Amino acid sequence: MANHPDRESVFGKGIVDHLELIQTLHHQQELLEEIAKLMAAALHRGNQIFWCGNGGSAGDSQHLAAEIVGRFRRERRGLPSIALTTDTSILTSVANDYGYEAVFARQIEALGNEGDVLVGISTSGNSHNVVCALQAARARNIATVAFTGEGGGRMAPLADYLFAVQSRDTARVQEAHMLAGHMLCDWIELDWVASEAARVESAIK
């Protein structure tokens, strides 16, 4: 007979496991800073940031693209960022004509340019369509960032920057991905606002 849920085994354990995993991100601050600077530089050049993933990672892609196009915390102009998970006509036509593994790669071929950044998100690191997207990006000299779980999976050798969360628990990995994504958005926005203020000050002088 299955055990009924109780507060400690669900909520208590979830909070403890989350906090323990988040503490490990302290050791990846340098990597996250490198990714943030890569993204900020791309936006200053007029390039764009792409995101892709499946399921919850698709939701994360859309969430983080929206933070950049809209705003995170501060008023500033909209910045170019696209989640490759949202256009159902493209997704279904490409899946029908070429197979589901091509749904993101085909969009990178169509929309991506040298100097852009692609962030592929997969808790396992093995999502075939995300792997294909990273391959397509590298062929076009687009910088590749992989958000994965422990080990990085098949995405690891295709990533210029690998943010691998030290867990294989899908829920915990997704929570860490979102925290990292929000911190990247914060850096990008602070950088952009500071640069705009410096330009205004320079023009006044």
Quick recap:
The chain has 205 residues and is α/β, with parallel strands linked by helices. It is 55% helix and 11% strand. The protein has seven helices and five strands, in the order H-H-E-H-E-H-H-E-H-E-E-H.
Note the run of SSEs as H and E. Answer: HHEHEHHEHEEH
In total, the number of strands is: 5
Cα end-to-end separation: 76 Å
* Beta-strand fraction estimate: 5-15%
Shape: globular
The DSSP helix count reads 7
SS-derived structural category: alpha/beta
Largest sheet: 5 strands, parallel
User: What integer is the average pLDDT?
Assistant: 96
Low-confidence regions: none
For the largest beta sheet, what order do the strands appear in spatially?
A: 2-1-3-4-5
Give Rg in angstroms: 18 Å
Fraction in helix: 40-55%
Keywords: Carbohydrate metabolism, Cytoplasm, Isomerase, Metal-binding, Zinc
Family: Belongs to the SIS family. GmhA subfamily.
Catalytic activity: 2 D-sedoheptulose 7-phosphate = D-glycero-alpha-D-manno-heptose 7-phosphate + D-glycero-beta-D-manno-heptose 7-phosphate
Organism: Acidicapsa dinghuensis
Polypeptide structure, described:
It is a single chain. The chain has a five-stranded parallel beta sheet with strand order 2-1-3-4-5, sandwiched between helices. It is of the alpha/beta class and 205 residues long. The mean pLDDT is 96. Helix content is 55%, strand content 11%. The radius of gyration is 18 Å and the shape is globular. Helix 1 (7-23) crosses helix 7 (170-204), helix 2 (29-44) crosses helix 7 and helix 5 (105-111) packs parallel to helix 6 (128-139). It has seven helices and five strands. Strand 1, helix 3 and strand 2 (81-83) form a beta-alpha-beta unit. It has helices spanning 7-23, 29-44, 56-69, 88-98, 105-111, 128-139, 170-204, and strands at residues 49-52, 81-83, 117-121, 143-148, 161-164. The chain starts with 6 loop residues before the first helix and ends with a helix.
